[in-house]
Design goal:
single chain; three-stranded mixed beta sheet; Spore Coat Polysaccharide Biosynthesis Protein SpsA, Chain A; about 20% strand; about 35% helix; about 375 residues; disordered N terminus; 9 helices; alpha/beta
Length: about 375
């Protein structure tokens, strides 16, 4: 009987099965789309929660092979961000770092290591992915190959990302992965004095381009205005035509730029000339900006060779991982009072003379 029934109504049964499976397929596709949309919303929410409170971005230019240097920073001076804490909505500084104390992550200060991944081998990309899985602080960009000639491109790409992602950004603290940075003291001074950078506690270290009642931004570091243009070697500027010397710029071992400068670079990235050195490029990009407080500070030890080690220094460039651990150990043992076991002056610093021609700025 069943066989006869199936033969007699075969067309109707096949049609019913077809529309049943079609309906199931449409339903499952809809569910997958809903899940994908929910996942996208979740990822966006997670990113917003992770970056939503960031006001200070520590931007560290690194390279694919420098995981050891990045780990040295993570284990030493990056921990000092916890010395800045909130009290009734106000950010204050207090040394509270110990050997055994667990470092509490500060939501308004975050660290970003910028690396170009274009052309990397599969194994190197895998290593970076694994590193980022544990550290969650790498900015991996496939737009460019990581090399000296692409440092300015790396900076522009990073500025665009920061501008688009960090909606409450105030300042970017830029440095290299061989810089030791007192990020806690820099944020302390920014909170207390920026953008005017005028106060009795810091006046002895600082010289200004000009005094204005209102500033539209801040460019703070150790400036040079009399550097000769490289005509050969890896820093050669074959298309430089602006002057017989570089325009005044803050040396790249460490400097600070305000959100207004980040926004300007991000919005005009397509028409900015990229020079070999990212710090020289920053000097050119900001040269025509009005109302920017350009502040030279002798506490930034960022020249091609270290000037020595003094307790008040905010940045020391050209430091090895061992140097970083030595300074970290000394700071912890002295409760933040001493940077090195022995104060040393290897070369003199200068206060930038903003009221003379750049060639006479830095004697």
């Amino acid at each position: 009987m069943l066989v006869v029934f199936i033969r007699r109504h075969r067309s109707m049964i096949l049609a019913s099965l077809f529309f049943f499976y079609l309906g199931c397929g449409i339903t499952l596709s809809s569910l997958r789309m809903d899940c994908k949309d929910d996942g996208a919303k979740l990822n966006y929410q997670e990113e917003n929660d992770y970056y939503g409170n960031v006001e200070y971005a520590v931007l560290i230019l690194s390279s694919p092979n420098n995981e050891g240097k990045r780990d040295a920073i993570r284990a030493t001076w990056a921990k000092f961000a916890s010395n800045i804490f909130l009290d009734n909505g106000e950010k204050l500084y207090k040394w509270n770092h110990t050997w055994i104390g667990r470092t509490k992550q500060t939501q308004f200060i975050k660290f970003f290591y910028v690396i170009g991944t274009h052309g990397l081998s599969e194994s190197k990309e895998h290593n970076l992915t694994m590193e980022n899985a544990r550290s969650k602080d790498l900015l991996l960009f496939s737009d460019f190959e990581d090399s000296y000639k692409n440092l300015a491109s790396k900076m522009v790409t990073a500025m665009k990302w920061l501008n688009n992602t960090l909606k409450h950004l105030k300042y970017v603290i830029k440095c290299d992965d061989d810089s030791f940075v007192r990020v806690d003291l820099i944020v302390r001074d920014l909170e207390a004095y920026a953008p005017h950078m005028n106060g009795p506690e810091i006046d002895q270290y600082i010289s200004y381009k000009e005094h204005l009642p209102v500033y539209r931004g801040l460019y703070w570091g150790y400036f040079d205005g009399h550097a000769n243009v490289y005509t050969r070697g890896k820093w050669q500027e074959s298309s430089w035509f602006l002057c017989d010397r570089y325009l005044p710029y803050a040396l790249g071992g460490g400097y600070i730029v305000s959100k207004s400068i980040v926004d300007y670079i991000a919005r005009n990235s397509d028409v900015l000339r990229l020079y070999m050195a990212e710090d020289v490029s920053m000097g050119v990009w900001t040269a025509a900006l009005d109302g920017i407080n350009r502040v030279h500070d002798v506490r930034f030890d960022t020249q091609w060779k270290s000037r020595g080690c003094l307790p008040h220094m905010l940045v020391r460039h050209k430091q090895t991982p061992k140097d970083m651990f030595d300074m970290y150990r000394t700071l912890v043992q002295s409760h933040g009072e001493r940077l090195c076991k022995t104060d040393t002056i290897l070369r003199k610093s200068y206060h930038y003379k903003w009221d003379v021609l750049p060639s006479l700025c830095c004697k």
